[in-house]
Design goal:
The structure holds two protein chains of two kinds. By secondary structure, chain A is an all-alpha fold. Chain A is built from four helices and no strands. By secondary structure, chain B is mostly helical. Chain B contains six helices and no strands. In chain B, helix 1 packs parallel to helix 6 and helix 3 runs antiparallel to helix 6. The termini of chain B are far apart. The chains are: A mainly alpha, B mainly alpha.
Chain lengths: 124, 205
């Protein structure tokens, strides 16, 4: 073990190797994935609110993946897969926390309303 | 007595020959910090998701948010991400001057982002949408402000690291620090994707 530590000075500590083309591909993809949602909303392209929310959410997820892969150099092999594992854990946790919170709170909102307003609509 | 303590043998080993620790402990450790930071933002996003439309009779997102301003801010942060990437490429070439130059450009984009964000906050407070005015504005200022605070500390870190690199060059320690700051900076851009989508774009729908 200690012999292994002795020869550790092999430059592994300055992170993954990155390339100009990798950054440029990531940058161009992010610009496109940023421009589309702003264009959609600023020009009122989608009139249905639910559809718009779903499209915007999908574009955001796509852009986050682009940033993860091209800027944060994420893949299944870094750190022997531990980076990926901790990220999957975080994503699952975040999804449960946000979806669970919204689910519970909106149900409480509609069920705890004063009786005369209680017809299923949410206070907004 | 199957588990006699006197059992000896060359095959019994209590330590693995090679401990399965990752090659690059700092990167993994810093990633863990970023993931825990992610949980803070998850809580703030969930809070905004619940309270984001409770304006207490005040003006809503469609009247308050200036999307052109947000688009410019998003561009600043995206550009700062790519210029940080260029700094990392210069670091790989062991070009100290180039690294410092691109870090300086990154810092300027970061400051431009902060300046515009503070201008927006000042404008909101000026028209009466203060953090105290409604649950939605409390959640808004907490979420966007926490992100802005991260960018502020990122800028301070950037300046400190630039001084370190200027004085000591691209040593191993400085390259490691640069890698951590690069992860932090790109992570903030990822969080901003969530902010501009869920707070601003969906807020004006």
């Amino acid at each position: 073990m200690s012999a292994h530590d002795g020869v550790h000075d092999d430059g592994h500590d300055d992170g993954p190797h990155s390339s100009f083309s990798g950054y440029m591909v990531g940058f161009v993809l992010s610009v496109v994935l940023t421009a589309i949602p702003f264009w959609l909303v600023m020009n009122d392209v989608i009139s249905n609110r639910t559809t718009a929310v779903l499209v915007l959410g999908g574009l955001a997820v796509a852009q986050i993946l682009v940033h993860m892969v091209y800027f944060l150099h994420m893949n299944g092999k870094v750190e022997g897969g531990w980076t990926m594992l901790s990220t999957i854990f975080t994503v699952v946790f975040v999804a449960i926390a946000i979806a669970g919170t919204l689910w519970v709170m909106f149900h409480m909102n509609s069920n705890m309303m004063p009786a005369h307003e209680m017809h299923g609509q949410l206070s907004s | 007595m199957a588990h006699s303590p006197t059992v000896t043998g060359a095959t019994r080993a209590y330590h693995l020959e090679h401990e399965p620790h990752p090659e690059n402990g700092t990167a993994l450790g810093f990633w863990m910090y970023l993931m825990s930071d992610c949980l803070i933002f998850a809580a703030l996003f969930a809070t905004y998701g619940v309270l984001g439309r409770s304006y207490a009779g005040g003006p809503g997102g469609a009247e308050l948010f200036d999307l052109k301003l947000v688009a410019i801010n998003t561009a600043f942060l995206l550009l700062s991400s790519i210029t940080f990437g260029f700094a990392m490429l210069q670091k790989q070439l062991n070009n100290k001057g180039g690294t410092l130059a691109w870090l300086a450009v990154t810092g300027l984009f970061g400051l431009a982002f902060l300046g515009l964000e503070l201008y927006e906050f000042r404008h909101l407070i000026h028209v009466g949408a203060t953090p105290q005015s409604s649950a939605a504005m409390s959640a808004f200022f907490t979420l966007v402000g926490t992100h802005g605070l991260h960018v502020t500390f990122g800028c301070i870190w950037l300046v400190v690291l630039m001084i370190q690199i200027a004085q000591h060059g691209l040593t191993r320690a400085n390259k490691r620090r640069l890698m951590c700051l690069s992860m932090f900076w790109h992570f903030l851009d990822v969080v901003w994707i969530g902010v501009f989508t869920f707070v601003y774009l969906m807020g004006v729908l």
